[in-house]
């Protein structure tokens, strides 16, 4: 009896270690994503990036990350979740070191691309481990912790970027990632030692891998260059067309493959499809909000990058506090109603934000609505992730993770392209005589935020629709 109790306690302790290891990884990935927004000007000045070239400091990471998420998730199923998780952290550390030592723009961009590869592998394997190790209430608690760490990582990245760059220079921001990834890698060898790591011995179709990788990378490139330019350039349109052609060929090959990377029956799991659609919409409306608000704070109100980042710290604090309470909300309302409530809160916050004034201030125009968004954000993130996880088939946790992460990543990129395009186009339509340029910018931002609010409200209604027929059923 005593030995049984001791074994249960040891199992519980190990689950806690796994939970915090994955949370630490989530924190690092969000720090890496947010910190670069602050340090890009310093990197560009030091290494001699041109105005067009400096966008690739961020884009190289985003294209590699977005293009490899789905493949990374599937590889976690085939080659083992812990193995891919550790491989991702190792590559992330190497990429960060290459960026920290970069003597030229080309070397820096290459290091950022390697960072994106490592991030994709570790992110996809991390969520797959959540699905395979935890279930029920433990899974809800884990996703709540990961959402809280995402909020903390976003806030920490913004503040650390300014602080480290000012004290030790921009290279120190990459060395921090090297140290953190190495520590997490060392901890993983002990913490994940007892986690079962089933592997699928089926061969990997290298042509399918090449088609999927090329198709998704070109899709990410096309969407990102579209959002950068604000208009449909020939390069972005050609990339999008080529990506669709490659992905179509990939789909045809999967139907004939003995060991497909993307089994066709996954699209018949309509509950999983619905969860991914809602997760994508969540990022379409939420990710651009941070970008638009930073533009408003800096271009309209005249704040500096660090001041702008600090203005969003209250939002990050609300995200962290709310994430811990989401499991209780789900227990009271149920998963679908909780998901809808999250989207409604996001819609209300975005609607309030759309009332921005060009002669406004942070406390009146930004603080209140962003706090409401901060409550809705973790609810949307956790409930859509839970819904996707509840529809995961045994042995395909990595595929489910890859699909969810891909939906979120491309949702963010689509949102940036669409909403910033709306803001830019609307601003150009306004009469310019006797009109302050800041008023034109604010008018465009307001329209984009209103469109995002309407999209979030439509997502809330979609979340409440009757259950779709599925093997698993929508909880």
3D structure, described in words:
By secondary structure, the protein is mainly α. It folds into 3 domains: 1-201, Growth Hormone, Chain: A; 205-260; 268-475, Growth Hormone, Chain: A (Up-down Bundle). It has 16 helices and no strands. The protein has helices at 2-47, 56-79, 81-101, 105-133, 136-168, 171-191, 206-229, 234-256, 270-300, 305-311, 313-323, 326-333, 335-353, 362-390, 397-429, 437-463. α2 (56-79) packs antiparallel against α3 and α3 (81-101) runs antiparallel to α6. The longest helix has 46 residues, at 2-47. The chain is globular, with a radius of gyration of 22 Å. 52% of the residues are buried. The model is unreliable at 3-10 and 468-475 (pLDDT under 50).
Write the layout of secondary structure elements.
Elements (H helix, E strand, L loop, with lengths): L1 H46 L8 H24 L1 H21 L3 H29 L2 H33 L2 H21 L14 H24 L4 H23 L13 H31 L4 H7 L1 H11 L2 H8 L1 H19 L8 H29 L6 H33 L7 H27 L12
Helix pairs in contact: 1-4, 1-5, 1-6, 2-3, 2-4, 2-7, 2-15, 3-4, 3-6, 4-15, 5-10, 5-11, 5-14, 7-8, 7-15, 9-14, 9-15, 9-16, 11-14, 12-13, 13-14, 13-16, 15-16
Q: What's the order of the H and E elements?
A: HHHHHHHHHHHHHHHH
Strand content: under 5%
Structural class, by secondary structure, is mainly alpha
Instruction: Tell me the span between the first and last alpha carbons.
Output: 37 Å
CATH topology of the largest domain, which one? Growth Hormone, Chain: A
Main β-sheet: number of strands, strand sense, barrel status? none
Low-confidence stretches: 3-10, 468-475
Task: Assign the CATH superfamily of the largest domain.
Answer: MFS general substrate transporter like domains
């Amino acid at each position: 009896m005593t030995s049984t109790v001791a074994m249960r306690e040891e199992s519980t302790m190990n689950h806690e270690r796994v939970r915090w290891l994955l949370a630490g990884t989530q924190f690092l990935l969000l720090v890496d994503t947010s910190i670069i927004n602050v340090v890009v000007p310093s990197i560009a000045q030091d290494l001699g990036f041109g105005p067009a070239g400096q966008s690739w400091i961020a884009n190289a990471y985003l294209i590699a990350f977005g293009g490899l998420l789905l493949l990374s998730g599937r590889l976690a199923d085939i080659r083992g979740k812990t193995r891919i998780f550790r491989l991702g952290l190792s590559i992330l550390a190497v990429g960060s070191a290459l960026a920290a030592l970069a003597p030229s723009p080309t070397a820096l961009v290459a290091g950022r691309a390697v960072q994106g590869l490592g991030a994709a592998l570790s992110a996809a394997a991390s969520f797959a481990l959540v699905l395979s190790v935890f279930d029920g209430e433990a899974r809800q608690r884990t996703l709540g912790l990961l959402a809280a760490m995402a909020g903390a990582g976003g806030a920490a990245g913004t503040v650390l970027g300014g602080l480290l760059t000012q004290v030790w220079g921009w290279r120190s921001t990459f060395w921090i990632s090297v140290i953190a990834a190495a520590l997490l890698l060392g901890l993983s060898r002990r913490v994940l030692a007892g986690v079962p790591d089933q592997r699928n011995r089926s061969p990997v179709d290298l042509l399918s891998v090449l088609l999927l990788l090329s198709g998704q990378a070109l899709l990410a490139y096309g969407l990102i260059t579209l959002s950068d330019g604000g208009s449909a350039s020939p390069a972005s349109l050609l990339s999008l067309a080529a990506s669709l052609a490659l992905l179509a060929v990939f789909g045809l090959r999967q139907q004939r493959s003995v060991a497909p990377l993307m089994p066709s029956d996954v699209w018949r799991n309509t509950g999983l499809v619905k969860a991914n659609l809602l997760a994508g919409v969540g990022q379409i409306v939420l990710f651009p909000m941070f970008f638009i608000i930073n533009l408003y704070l800096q271009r309209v109100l005249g704040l500096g990058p660090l001041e702008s980042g600090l203005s969003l710290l209250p939002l990050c604090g609300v995200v962290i506090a709310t994430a811990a309470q989401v499991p209780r909300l789900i227990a009271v309302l149920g998963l679908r109603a909780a998901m809808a409530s999250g989207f409604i809160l996001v819609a209300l916050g975005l609607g309030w934000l759309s009332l921005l004034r060009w002669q406004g201030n942070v406390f009146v125009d930004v603080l209140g609505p962003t706090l409401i968004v901060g409550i809705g954000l973790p609810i949307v993130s956790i409930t859509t992730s839970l819904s996707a996880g509840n529809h995961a088939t045994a042995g395909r946790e990595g595929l489910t993770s890859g699909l969810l992460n891909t939906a979120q990543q491309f949702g963010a990129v689509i949102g940036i392209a669409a909403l910033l395009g709306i803001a830019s186009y609307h601003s150009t339509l306004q009469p310019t005589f006797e009109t302050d340029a800041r008023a034109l910018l604010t008018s465009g931002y307001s329209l984009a935020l209103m469109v995002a609010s309407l999209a979030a409200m439509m997502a809330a209604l979609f979340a409440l629709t009757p259950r779709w027929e599925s093997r698993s059923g929508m909880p």
